[in-house]
Task: inverse folding
């Protein structure tokens, strides 16, 4: 069964002196995630926002491969923001901006970030492992923000486990879902149809479903 971490560094994982945290799942999944994203991002330029960046390891890995893209990590957890900043400094990469504090459930988070000097029009938005470990209003805020920020040709990549037509795609995801809901009844593996409805309410549409290892998927949304 997939494990989940609400706060890295409190899970017994490695904590470096400079605040860099480590997500064990990053090491298992980042190559497959990059393989899926790179089909769209390679050869393009622009701004990519990551929300719920966690440790910051994904953004560093992706930024290494895309010097023409400016990466904007964000999170709302203070320890995670410190870790993202530390990974950014450790990488020495020029195409990663300082992390923004973003609470996806806060109304107007996208406009507030723009006003504070954040990205204006996104080539892409990337969000991994957030909507099932957060109440539904976080997903609502995420799609609202995506609609406000994406360029006409931009894409929103949503990674995680998802249900299809109300059914889990694997027994391990069903067990995971139960453990999530036991931890917090407002959490849980989301159904693709519910996310498509949320997308439609925000003038977005599901363009592609990419099957990923370990019964995960990447849902790719664009403007409808
Ligand atoms: C399971 S972690 C995933 C981290 C990273 N994306 C990854 O896949 O390794 C979920 C992340 O979402 C963040 N998060 C949860 N609720 C949030 C909210 N309302 N706004 C922004 N970030 C949130 C948490 O702080 C945490 O960093």
Result:
């Amino acid at each position: 069964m997939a494990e989940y971490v609400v706060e890295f560094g409190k899970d017994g994982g490695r904590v470096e002196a400079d605040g860099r945290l480590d997500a064990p799942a990053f090491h298992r999944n980042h190559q497959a995630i990059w393989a899926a994203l790179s089909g769209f991002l390679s050869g393009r330029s622009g701004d990519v926002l990551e929300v719920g960046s966690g440790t910051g390891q994904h953004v560093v890995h992706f930024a290494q491969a895309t010097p023409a893209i400016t990466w904007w990590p964000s999170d709302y957890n203070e320890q995670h923001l410190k870790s993202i900043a530390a990974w950014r400094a450790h990488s020495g990469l020029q195409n990663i901006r300082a992390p923004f504090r973003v609470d996806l459930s806060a109304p107007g988070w996208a406009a507030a970030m723009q006003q504070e000097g954040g990205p204006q029009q996104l080539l892409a938005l990337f969000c991994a492992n957030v909507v099932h470990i957060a109440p539904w209003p976080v997903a609502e805020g995420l799609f609202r923000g995506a609609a406000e920020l994406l360029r006409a040709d931009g894409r929103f990549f949503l990674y995680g486990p998802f249900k299809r037509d109300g059914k889990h795609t694997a027994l391990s995801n069903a067990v995971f879902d139960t453990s999530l809901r036991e931890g917090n009844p407002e959490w849980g593996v989301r159904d693709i149809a519910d996310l498509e409805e949320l997308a439609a309410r925000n003038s977005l549409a599901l363009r592609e479903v990419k099957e990923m290892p370990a019964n995960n998927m990447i849902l790719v949304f664009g403007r409808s």
About this structure: The first strand starts at residue 46 and ends at 51. The chain has a mean pLDDT of 96. The chain has one domain: 24-223. The longest helix spans residues 24-41.
